[in-house]
Amino acid sequence: MRIYFTFEPRPDLCESLLAEFPQVHFVFERRLSHEELTQADVLVTYGEDVTEEALQYAPNLKWIFVASAGIEKLPAQAIMERSIIVSNVRGIHKTPMAESVLAHILALKRAIPWIYEQQQKSEWSKKAKQSELYGSTALILGPGAIGSEIGRLLQAFGVKTIGCNRSGQTAPYMDSMTNFTQLTDVLPQADIVIAVLPKTAETTHLLTEVHFRAMKNSAIFMNFGRGNLVEEHVLLHAMKAQEIGYAVLDVFEQEPLTADNPLWSLPNVIISPHISSHSSRYVERSLAIFKPNLAKWLRGEGDLENLLDLSRGY
Amino acid sequence: MRIYFTFEPRPDLCESLLAEFPQVHFVFERRLSHEELTQADVLVTYGEDVTEEALQYAPNLKWIFVASAGIEKLPAQAIMERSIIVSNVRGIHKTPMAESVLAHILALKRAIPWIYEQQQKSEWSKKAKQSELYGSTALILGPGAIGSEIGRLLQAFGVKTIGCNRSGQTAPYMDSMTNFTQLTDVLPQADIVIAVLPKTAETTHLLTEVHFRAMKNSAIFMNFGRGNLVEEHVLLHAMKAQEIGYAVLDVFEQEPLTADNPLWSLPNVIISPHISSHSSRYVERSLAIFKPNLAKWLRGEGDLENLLDLSRGY
Questions:
Q1: What is the pLDDT of residues B13-30, one digit of tens each?
Q2: What average pLDDT does this structure show over A245-251?
Q3: Coiled-coil regions in this chain (chains A, B) (predicted)?
Q4: Taking Cα atoms as reference points, which of A133, A197, A195, A248 lies closest to residue B156?
Q5: Which structural domains are found in chain B, ordered by start?
Q6: What is the ipTM of this complex?
Q7: Residue B222: helix, strand or coil by DSSP?
Q8: Which residues of A touch B265 (CB under 8 A)?
Q9: pLDDT 10s digits, A70-96
Q10: Residue A43 — φ and ψ, nearest 5°?
Q11: A274: distance to nearest CA of chain B, Å?
Q12: Optimal mutation site among B46, B93, B95, B99, interface A, most CBs of chain A within 10 A
């Protein structure tokens, strides 16, 4: 039984794996090599290195554990044909991502960018334009594990939360729910619109000009899901025309954003280079999900946590 | 019955006062004038304009309503001798202040200053040093209305809260309590030390070199109470010697901070020019506290809200 990691956890985390699973042969590399694949029964990866070609070198592969949430780069068809099971670390991002979302919202409400600028000029001034998060309304596109955690924190700040998903079915920490087709009707109520949707056919270009025009002039739009949600030219137009107050973007149609992209210099746009989910505790948490599932799998039990249905894309 | 405001609320707020209290003669000015004082029964003020001299021009004055929290500039002795009652808007600051405190903490934990800097350079990099607020321990010096609100929000983020006051008596949203004399023993546990203490003889220079040395090297120290808490040279030394991770300061021994103050340019110090309590909803909320108390007072009832004991200083 060989388990092949295409990244290298901290030494103490590796040691604990070796100690807890003496019957397993672990291989830790910092990349995916075809030689190692030929012997691997389980692949532990961040998901970006698994190609259709790579799978051909892995005749024994039965389980891919993806230590991230995004699985859109996996060769879904080839994996399904081989009946390889795939599980991920769904929910692992919820704490750092929700903290990043709240950090950006509170920063804008409490004039943190202005405070930093004044300090650079050594200038004491009280003319900050500050408002409050309390009493706002937030629309959360995609109230899954991450969106609901954002909703929980927003509610603690006295924010009314409206969840929006495909079905309109209830989700935790949402005061009310709506669905994709009714989005335009609900957008005028929202002070903050937070998208944490996965990349699927349905979410691609889900937001259009119409939606930005329907938002409040003062609205903060945040995309912390995937860049496919809105075409860049639509976003650029909305921000240049000041149709809304701010856009805070963690994801983009094309990543990395090139240095000449006009988004960088718009005064009402905040660029976060797809780092909102990062955390110094990330690998530790991934392994805390992986280990009990590995134990189950070694016992021959099939009901692993976070098993993915690649035909649906999430 | 004349009520003299030394500031001017928004027209709609003035109108609602006139409509609700037709029996009262309201005067709204943007400053304190001796002429108007001679006739005033009630003075509504932000508190900084009331001097001992001014009181001599106000023979009828029975009640001073201070639309702020800080009352240290009031001529306490003269007010007590005249038996003028004083009430304030205690608690009005809790929402904007708690939001500012959380904004600064989350900004540092989620690398918001770094994100803004990268954007200025149009530079896509994922090398942010981000950590999480979740699982931290916060020590709150002065868990009153504001401190408890900060505690409530921190607990929602999974932070353990330790309150610290003179007596060590329990306070809301504190997981445990300590008192001023045991501070040095508790400081090593805290990832964040948040001071929201009023200015009194006891809080003056309460924090000394010993306390900064007792804090974690990574600790964030926040003073959002009053500048008397710690001598500036003590703070400067602690920050230059990097005894702690960050200081976020909203208050100072001398305000405004002069342009040549070395605090401005220390990389581990964030300067907020005493604006953390500011909010566009401030006057509205002050009047929401004032009105029911005015109604009580007109009925001759004495148990006004937030009556102050000037002999204790808060």
A1: 999 999 999 999 999 999
A2: 98
A3: none
A4: A133
A5: 2-92+280-298 (3.40.50.720), 94-271 (3.40.50.720)
A6: 0.84
A7: strand
A8: 122
A9: 678 899 999 999 999 999 988 888 999
A10: -115, 125
A11: 7
A12: B99
